Amino acid sequence: MSEHLTEIIVFTILFAVVSGMGFVAARWRRPDNLASLDEWGLGGRKFGSWVTWFLVGGDLYTAYTFVAVPALLYGAGATGFFALPYTVITYPLVFLVLIRLWSVAHVHGMVTPADFVRARFGSPTLALLIAITGLVATMPYIALQLVGIEAVLKTMGVTGDLPLIIAFAILAAYTYQSGLRAPALIAFVKDALIYLVILVAIIYIPSQLGGWGSIFDAAKSKFAATPAVTDGTLLNANNQLQYITLAFGSAMALFLYPHSVTGVLAARNRGVIKRNMSALPAYSLLLGLIALLGYMAIAAGIKPITTNGKADANTVVPQLFDKVFPDWFAGVTYAAIGIGALVPAAIMSIAAANLFTRNIYKEYIKRDATDAQEAAVSKIASLVVKIGAVLVILLIDPQFSIDLQLIGGVIILQTLPSVALGLYTRWFHRAGLIAGWAAGMTAGMLMLYNIANPAINHAHFGGSAFPLAKLGLDTKITIYAGFLALAVNLIVAVTGTMIARAGKLADGGDATSPTDYLADEGDPRVQKIELSGSH
After folding, report:
1. 517 Ramachandran zone, left/alpha/beta (phi>0; psi -120 to 50)
2. Whole-number Å distance between alpha carbons of 409 and 405
């Protein structure tokens, strides 16, 4: 550990400064009373363009960006670039879904996607399923952030669980005190550090490795020497379908996550969201450069750190920084990764806590809960969610931490018919949506269970690339499990709706439900959509 002393000192100082900002954030734009979900969980719904830019950017571009994507390129090659098109595809979808959801939520004081589903389809059961889905899908995503911190600590020679527990405790404490204001304030520092590190890395590291030509040649040579048919610097016939469906499926999943919704609902108006969604694809350029760190690690001869006989691919990027940068700047890069984990982990835990409070606690335990009681329960729930995320790490322990996020993506995709399509049509019947959710979730879990990864000795849950051969087809082609699961969901939801309508089952709507104003605030052209009611 002594050889990493400078790195540890720099990392600790920056980590401490940012954690201090998290506690101070409770007084930043302080309202008269933080004891409500609007204030604690959504920052008062008053964030403007700059704050929203950093908040949503910090929310969507996480430790997963810095650690998991380069690790996937390091291990599998071009397939890892799926993250680049999917972040580009996401933003048009956000225009279609989240801006509309913001309008609905703004008028009716909704905090979660499940709030909307409850009002839209008049079904507390469906809303409960959406809330549980969001909670379960978010835990592995939070775990992914903790994996990022763990990879940095390993590289610095810091062993044992205590440092990670301390970082977890600090995150839990300032999130509990400051709510969404904490990650919103910290996001400024997080993004500044990440931009600094990447700009230095893409200029300095290639100069130390003989240029980009040498870097790509080294990657090509590595993959040519492996027996795998799905790796390489170029896609091939065996992984092209997986790449396409993974990129498109991940794009649809991203805006359905509770933390994505939370970041958007905190904006003060629709104009803020539109400006940010138009500009945020600039982050995708950064993501592409970050991904190339995986190839740089190959060219630099980096080997993953091995713990208990298992190689941890998530450590390749921190080790690359340790090898090529001076100790003090390596410490800065580690802090960027660590802080890049704190911001999204805080937002995710808040979003999951809001789901529990609004759609489980208030719906089924205490219907007359006051704003203060809601806020108190949400604070405690945010702590429980973080503990759940730690358990995900202990129980699943995949080779590539990206698998954690991909498993969550398969799960959260099953909310698309109720949330995304529900914003545009009430044709779906609640019984059909519930049946579709159950079918899609079952299919997704069965496929994930039957995906093996011999390289890491995992017979089950070894990734999200489902072999079509398991469906009886004579091929080596794989497809994203979430894509097939969503297809099953939609087919069953449509069929169930048609059967319910043929049987003239009541759809649970309330014809007197209020309407939503979907035009910009102050726009005289008022467009309305009924939340629920007869068709």
Report:
1. beta
2. 6
Terminal CA-to-CA distance of the chain, rounded, Å? 67
Structure tokens at 223: 């993959």
What's the pTM value of the predicted model, to 2 decimals? Answer: 0.86
Contact, 312 vs 305, CB < 8 A?
yes
Q: How big is the CA angle at 266 (ends 261 and 268), to the nearest 5 degrees?
A: 130
* 34 three-state secondary structure: coil
Residue among 369, 346, 318 at smallest CA distance from 151: 318
The answer to whether 421 and 433 have CB atoms below 8 angstroms apart is: no
Cα–Cα distance measured from residue 248 to residue 255, given in angstroms and rounded to the nearest whole number: 12
DSSP assignments along 472-489, one per residue = T-S---EEEHHHHHHHHH
Q: Is residue 185 within 8 Å of 428, Cβ to Cβ?
A: no
| 521-527 long-range Cβ contacts below 8 angstroms, 24+ apart | 521/269, 521/270
What does the alpha-carbon distance between residue 75 and residue 432 come to, in Å, rounded to a whole number?
Answer: 41
Determine the Cα–Cα distance for residues 315 and 528; give it in Å rounded to an integer: 51
CA–CA distance, 200 with 202 (Å, rounded to integer): 6
Q: Locate 258 and state its tokens.
A: 């509770």
**Which pLDDT score, from 0 to 100, does residue 534 have?**
35
The pLDDT score that the predictor gives to residue 524 is: 40
| Positive or negative torsion for Cα 189, 40, 139, 128 | negative
Q: Which of 348, 349, 344, 354 is nearest to 131 (CA)?
A: 354
Asked if residues 405 and 64 have their Cβ atoms less than 8 Å apart, the reply is yes
If residue 138 lies in a helix (H) or strand (E), which one and from where to where?
helix 124-155
Over the stretch 269-313, which tens digit does the pLDDT of each residue have? Answer: 888 888 888 777 777 788 888 889 999 999 999 998 887 777 778
Contact of 323 with 232, CB cutoff 8 Å:
no
- Tell me the C-alpha distance between 6 and 14, whole Å: 13
Distances (CA, A) of 264 to 106, 257, 269: 11, 11, 10
User: How far apart are the C-alpha atoms of 172 and 61, rounded to whole Å?
Assistant: 20
Query: Cα–Cα distance between 485 and 31 in angstroms, integer?
Result: 44
